[in-house]
Write a structure and sequence with these properties.
This protein is 41% helix and 16% strand. It is an alpha/beta fold and 379 residues long.
């Protein structure tokens, strides 16, 4: 691989830009903002949707914003987006998610965060009818396969995901580059009183915290079952679920049938500033996921001194290291006992919090973006 220092015109698909779009939105925002601030050589064309076009702000004369009001996972994305890309006369484009149009007219890099839809497809992760889900899943399989084969480089966000991609798509090991994510810089500043923030969300007792979406692989139904066991020993505890209200959170809420009415708080979308208080005031952050490509929220929890109890599945032991207490997320009794023991053992809790502060130093967006820019230099 040889470095190419020639000035380039680079596209970035930033249609997920912004924290409202969950983990992908966070990744997109940090990568886009960081790269255009860091790279003083190349020109950039940033593709955005109408709802986040004004949220991305820049005065950089080397950066052009293009409105690509094309929703992801649609036929319009496949047919219209390639034309928008072609119009900009780019040297190459970086897709920050697997949804690469099949007819992309130029060379590209793609970030693949995980292979959950390939390895663990489930109708429960979709609002579509069974037939439409099968059709959509088949299209997904084709798109990600073609993206992996055609990409000049694939960025994987963990070693676990890197090995998954190489094994699944039979691509060369040199083509798949591991570049860890970082912890959001926007979560570093705290200006509000933590207890006042928490009270504003009707949280009035000690609580366990989860931050993220409610897709089936996140295993929140199991977390609620485990919470009922924990409450048998700790009756004053609450469970706080932070995530943008959508079909999956509404379905989870309905499944409770008025049980735990005052004990489970559905906080909805929480701003970065308020989220700091949620982490700082929590008794523990519990991450019961069955499948992750990286796992950013538990690292954010560690940043703010919140002890983490995590699933032992997929990449999580790799990313969280010795700074978390692990459980089998499919074993209710084990999950409950691990969390109870952690809450009761102040010495172990404090030790893990200190290890967490060390662990998060391994991941920062500046390091991530420097590696991505170096990859750009190779094209």
């Amino acid at each position: 691989m040889t470095k190419n220092n020639k000035k380039k015109r680079i596209g970035i698909d930033a249609r997920f830009y912004g924290p409202e779009n969950k983990g992908l939105g966070r990744y997109t925002q940090e990568v886009v903002d960081g790269i255009i601030a860091m790279d003083q050589n190349n020109e950039y064309v940033i593709f955005l949707r109408e709802d986040n076009f004004d949220k991305f702000k820049t005065n950089n004369p080397r950066v052009k914003k293009v409105k690509a009001n094309v929703r992801w996972y649609t036929f319009k994305e496949q047919l219209v987006f390639p034309f928008l890309i072609w119009q900009e006369k780019l040297d190459f484009i970086h897709f920050l998610h697997f949804n690469v149009p099949l007819f992309t007219p130029i060379k590209f890099i793609v970030t693949i965060h995980d292979l959950i839809l390939t390895k663990h497809p489930t109708k429960r992760a979709s609002t579509l009818s069974p037939l439409m889900y099968k059709i959509k899943n088949l299209i997904y399989q084709i798109i990600i396969y073609v993206a992996a084969k055609r990409a000049r480089y694939i960025i994987a966000v963990s070693e676990y995901t890197r090995k998954d991609i190489i094994k699944k798509f039979k691509v060369s090991t040199e083509k798949v580059i591991k570049i860890y994510e970082g912890v959001a810089s926007s979560l570093q500043v705290r200006q509000k009183d933590d207890k006042e923030v928490i009270l504003g969300y009707n949280i009035h007792r000690s609580y366990l915290l989860y931050v993220g979406n409610a897709y089936p692989h996140k295993n929140l139904e199991q977390l609620i079952k485990v919470f009922s066991k924990i409450k048998a020993e700790m009756p004053d505890l609450q469970l706080v679920l932070v995530g943008k209200k959508d079909y999956f959170y509404e379905r989870l809420k309905k499944s409770l049938e008025n049980k735990f009415f005052d004990d489970i708080i559905f906080a909805g979308f929480v701003s970065d500033e308020d989220l700091i208080s949620f982490y700082r005031e929590a008794e523990a952050y519990v991450f019961p996921s069955l499948f992750e490509g990286f796992g950013l929220p538990p690292l954010e929890a560690m940043t703010h001194g919140c002890v983490v109890a995590s699933s032992n599945k997929t990449c999580l032991p790799e990313v969280l290291g010795k700074a978390a207490k692990y459980f089998d997320p499919e074993n209710e009794s084990e999950m409950a006992q691990i969390v109870i023991d952690l809450l009761k053992n102040k010495e172990e809790k404090n030790k893990l919090i200190q290890l967490g502060h060390t662990q998060v130093k391994k991941y920062n967006w500046e390091k991530c973006n420097k590696k991505i820019v170096r990859l750009y230099d190779l094209l």
